[in-house]
Amino acid sequence: MKMLRAITLVSLALVVAGCTRTANFQTTQPVMPQPTVLTNPTPDVVTPTDSTPIQQARLEPGSYEYIDGAILGQLTPAQRSAANDAQFYALQFGRPGAPRTWSSGGATGQVSVGPYVRVNNLDCREFSHRVTVSGQTYTRSGQACREIDGAWGVTA
User: Is the pTM of this model over 0.70?
Assistant: First the structure.
């Protein structure tokens, strides 16, 4: 019982000490100086006038250099389109080593890319595109670079 009373007294003393301490704090915030606003811009301010359009990244449909040529004739247009989309998104947005898969009409594929590297002032990535049709797997590996016009092209 004495222990409970001692704990209660110590707790009460801490509460009272805390109340008297907070009464002495200042609540006003220091005044911050306001920034100076210029009404007339200085004459050396240059406004960009470059009207060069930004090139959008793309992978040309119809150019299937990233797929093993032995399987290309067996793929339907829908399967080629799915492979093309997966290849583009893997090259443009893929994390190195994280495969991007696709599936269309019985054919499946997987695209893996490496990290971006700079070659002749172009962004390039190594890739591996695996296609499986009727239990047969075909793999094409190489390097693709994003050209100045925004198109991804297989270079090796």
Answer: no
Pairwise CA distance, residues 67 & 142, whole Å: 10
Angle at 120 (CA atoms; ends 110, 154), nearest 5 degrees? 30
111-143, pLDDT tens digit by residue?
999 999 998 889 999 999 999 999 999 999 999
Please report which helix (H) or strand (E) contains residue 132, including its range. strand 122-133
pLDDT digits (tens, 9 = 90+) for 136-146: 999 999 999 99
Strand partners, 101: 110
The contacts of residue 137 (CB under 8 Å, 6+ apart) are 130, 131
Inter-residue long-range contacts of 143-147, CB under 8 Å, 24+ positions, other chains counted: 143/119, 144/66, 144/91, 145/119, 146/57, 146/91, 146/122, 147/122
SS3 of 148, please? coil
Whole-angstrom distance, CA of residue 100 vs CA of residue 66: 14
Residue 57 is classified by DSSP as P
The CA distance from 92 to 128, in Å, is 14
Take residue 62 and report the two structure tokens written for it.
């119809």
